């Protein structure tokens, strides 16, 4: 394992164990066929509170949904992003604005500029990773 992988694994571990237990999952709906739904289930099994964020603001897993991060009336620790890469940077900026501690871009979501902005704001961030894979491996 190279240094970059070790550093990223350390960031993942810090997010999973130290960032907090309230995760806003952007893109989460009641569509069980979507990856966000399965990952939300894994997060719940590992003790995370999963807050759905989706334009339809659906209740998922008993947790009321919100249309935007800014609509959530309580602190969010981690923002887990299940949107297309071209939309992810704006979500990352919203995560910084609402005071999240970390941003997690899911598999296939990469935006180097957003990563730089989030890190410059002092938040932890990972891209192109999945907590459902990393929790059992590193958590």
Can you describe what's shown?
There is one protein chain. With 139 residues, this protein is of the alpha/beta class. The chain is 41% helix and 15% strand. It contains five helices and five strands. Helix 1 crosses helix 5 and helix 3 (85-97) packs parallel to helix 4. The mean pLDDT is 92.
The major sheet is characterized as:
5 strands, parallel
**Mean of residue pLDDT values:** 92
* Alpha-carbon Rg, integer: 14 Å
How do the helices and strands follow one another from N- to C-terminus?
A: HEHEEHEHEH
* Residue share in helix: 40-55%
Count of extended strands: 5
Poorly predicted runs: none
Please state how the strands of the largest beta sheet are arranged side by side: 2-1-3-4-5
Set out the fold topology.
Blueprint: H1 3-18, E1 22-26, H2 35-45, E2 49-53, E3 78-81, H3 85-97, E4 102-105, H4 112-120, E5 124-126, H5 131-138
Parallel strand pairs: 1-2, 1-3, 3-4, 4-5
Helix pairs in contact: 1-5, 3-4
């Amino acid at each position: 394992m190279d240094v970059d992988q070790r550093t990223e694994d350390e960031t993942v571990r810090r997010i999973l164990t130290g960032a907090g237990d309230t995760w806003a999952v952007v893109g989460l709906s009641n569509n069980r066929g979507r990856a966000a739904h399965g990952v939300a289930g894994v997060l719940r099994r590992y003790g995370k509170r999963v807050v759905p964020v989706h334009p339809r603001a659906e209740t998922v897993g008993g947790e009321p949904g919100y249309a935007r991060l800014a609509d959530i009336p309580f602190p969010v620790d981690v923002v887990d992003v299940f949107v297309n890469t071209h939309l992810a940077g704006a979500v990352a900026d919203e995560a910084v604005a609402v005071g999240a501690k970390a941003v997690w871009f899911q598999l296939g979501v990469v935006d180097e500029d957003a990563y730089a902005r989030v890190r410059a704001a002092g938040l932890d961030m990972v891209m192109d990773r999945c907590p459902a894979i990393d929790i059992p491996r590193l958590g």
